[in-house]
Amino acid sequence: MKKLMLSLSLAAGLTSLVACSSKDNKQPEKEKSEIVTTIENPVTIEFWHAMAGTNQEAVEKLVENFNSTIGAEKNITVKPVYQGQYTDLKTKTTAALKSGSVPAIAQAYPDWVAEYLQSGSVVELDPYINDETVGIKDFDDIIESYREENSQYEGGKFYSLPFNKSTEVLYYNKKFFDENGLKVPTTWDEVEEVSAKIHELTGKTAFGIDAPANYFITMVQQYGGEYTNSQGDILFAEDGAKAAKEALELLKRNVDAGYWRLPGEDKYLSGPFMSELLYMYTGSTAGYSHIATADFEVGIAPMPQISDKTGAVIQQGTNVVVFDQNKSKEEVYAAYEFAKYLASYEGNLLFSTETSYLPIRESVVSSDAYQNYVVESNDQTKIVGPEQAKYYFYDPSFYKDAYSSYNVRMAAEKAVESVVLNGVSPEQAIEEAVNSLK
Amino acid sequence: MKNKTNLSNATKTTIKQNFLGYLYLLPTLVITLIFVVYPLIMSFRMGFYERYNYYTDEGSGFGLATFKFVLTDPNFQKALMNTFLIVVIAVPVSMIIALAIALLLNSGIKASKFFQAIYFLPYVTSVIAIGIVWSWLFHSDFGYINQFLGMFGVDPIQWLNDPKMAIWALIIFNIWSGLAFKIVIFLSGLQNIDPQYYKAAQIDGTPKWKVFTRITLPLLSPTVFFLTITSVIASFKVYNEVFALFGGKPGPANSCMTVVYYIYDMFYGSSQVHKAAAASIILFIIILIITGIQMLLSKKLVHYK
């Protein structure tokens, strides 16, 4: 009987233990208190990221540099943890936020941040950025679009800092263009013209769009419209969806003529481009490494525009976000220091010269070290990309009960695909997109 | 009086023994409760909220609003239609092909063991890897399928680009990927049939077709029943195949959305967990009803020896 009672009480203990641990993640109301900017006892924080291969090596170098300089001085040790691909990173971060074991700092896309904000554990960075001693003094040096993107959340507060960034450019087969005396297009009219010529010469598709959703988001703005805002209003539907229709009509006209295409079954256009089944396409600067080894010389030009007034090029990539769940103030400050280092001149110069990602600071772009690196590596995306900075916009991020920015993006992609692949009229495709967002 | 105490003593022993039995089960029960039952109840609960904060587990608007949203969502309707199409076409077709192959293997052809192993290989290969191979087979310019059809003068089919064809590519892939498991089960079913029946039929000079319909099929009916139940359920849960064939997209212009893909996307993509929960409850009810119907039918059609 004694044994029975013992095992019973053990079982009871076990269940209550489980009950307790599931309640742990409920945090006490966050009190708006002073930030801590000095660390007495050394702290170690984890940095969760999704950078593999050479990118991971660069992250490790950044961490090493930080730990041996700023970290050593301020009693901070950062431990980088690779969490797999972006989707894995997001799943794990979400799960960790739920179980109360989130790291102090992690890579995150803006729309993830919009979701994480619901947990109440994302740290507002303004008090740190604006602090007299530990703030970021040359903050304006960070390209405007990145600053806007990271403060697009409620109240215009900074909930993240920029880290690995890319943009879109026009890739073209330089050898083919030179041989046939073709001019590299700078406007969409010219893209249409050159496409017709190439099609006439080769009978093949001339031009492709690697990211259908980006085409929609970018072209709506180039045609003088708006896409969405960070509050989640579907702006492209307003004003009779004029810009969106024009964008889809341009695409439809050229696809129907056999000039343009989407990746479709090839998933990415780098393959068809390398096999010369296609002579130019718009795609991410981060994808350049896939075509750098082509048999022909790859030309890189700025994204075509409709007009200078409505110039628009998407900038994308992740930022870093700081969490305070089950963290001491010292740990939160340590995480900020690391985020600050990643966005600093030194950190960003290292990262943008070791990976395919672009600088986030004007001073890095114009530095001799960076310019020399570009000449050495012969990677023109590194010049052409940042040159478009004045046209940069970001894909606004929000999370609402009915739908989130992810859903709008998916709806835009579906609209483009329906027009191109299913023969749906632009009007109907837009109507379906708007209807799916209710 | 004596009797009574005896009885209660016996009862006591039984209770004690039962209790000990349950004690041995306790670790499993606790784990099942925590990792299966508790999440199940939580996800059921989630589906009934109109708004839900996944991080804090707080919801508001308890009721059926989310079910209404899911049922009227054109994406979900598309998913339901596609899923039914897969169930109605892929399940019977792959059953018939699997049975034919199993009969062939069972008829004592040469190297039947070798072929058994070959046919079983897909079952132990990752669906993602197979999906990549199939996406190449289906490629409109370079795929073997179009090259083969081209020999008969068929124009290249845009299997993976055309939203109207993509679902058929998925169904073909699904038929094929379901074969391995079915062949193995059919084979074991066939080998369980007493050869005496066939000998008797042989003596009577029964034609082959009659042997099949009067002996093989009735005696195989429990196997057919088992396979129907499991493959209908499996077809309702098609998701891996979609993910693999279209590189992490539900087909061109969402044309291959299935119910489980919808749930996956609602959970991981849109992060609308309550809608994912509601959709999975709907799927659960559908599978429950269909399996119930199958159980009822089986009473009439299945012969157990």
CATH architecture of the largest domain in chain B: Orthogonal Bundle
Structural class of chain A: alpha/beta
Average pLDDT confidence of chain A is: 92
What is the succession of H and E elements of chain B? HEEHHHHHHHHHHH
**Oligomeric composition of the shown chains:** heterodimer
Binned strand content of chain A = 5-15%
How many domain regions of chain A? 2
What does it look like?
- The complex is a heterodimer of chains A (438) and B (305).
- Chain A has 438 residues and is an alpha/beta fold.
- Chain A contains 18 helices and ten strands.
- Chain A is 46% helix and 13% strand.
- In chain A, α2 (53-74) packs antiparallel against α13 (345-354) and α9 crosses α17.
- With 305 residues, chain B is mainly alpha-helical.
- Chain B folds into two domains: 2-47, no CATH class; 66-301, Orthogonal Bundle (MetI-like fold).
- Chain B contains twelve helices and two strands; from the N terminus they run αββααααααααααα.
- Chain B starts with a helix and ends with a helix.
- The model of chain B has no long low-confidence stretch (mean pLDDT 91).
- Chain A binds chain B through residues 4, 7, 11, 14-15, 18, 26, 87, 90-91, 94, 97-98, 115-116, 118-121, 264-265, 267, 399, 401, 403-404, 406-407, 410, 414, 417-418, 421-422, 432, 435-436, and chain B through 19, 23, 26, 30, 34, 50-51, 53-56, 73-75, 135, 138-140, 158-164, 247, 252-255, 268-272.
